[in-house]
Request: fold
Amino acid sequence: MILLSNTGREAAAMVGERLRHAAQAQDYRADGQPIELTVSLGCSTLLPGESAESLLRRADSALYVAKREGRNRLAMAG
Reply:
């Protein structure tokens, strides 16, 4: 989990995509063999009056959307 203060929807998505691309740019190996890494992210921004539990639940749901839509992507909570 990564928390960003004072960050809107578009900026949060941009940070998530940068993290995803940075993780993929690394060279990962196991026993000398290359490993292809994919990163799926679920992102949510705090709604007025929303509880922390609700925020995390929506981010988790967005993560499952990213996985269901083919993985290796960022999905924003609605």
The mean pLDDT is 96. The beta strands are 28-30, 33-35, 41-43, 74-76.
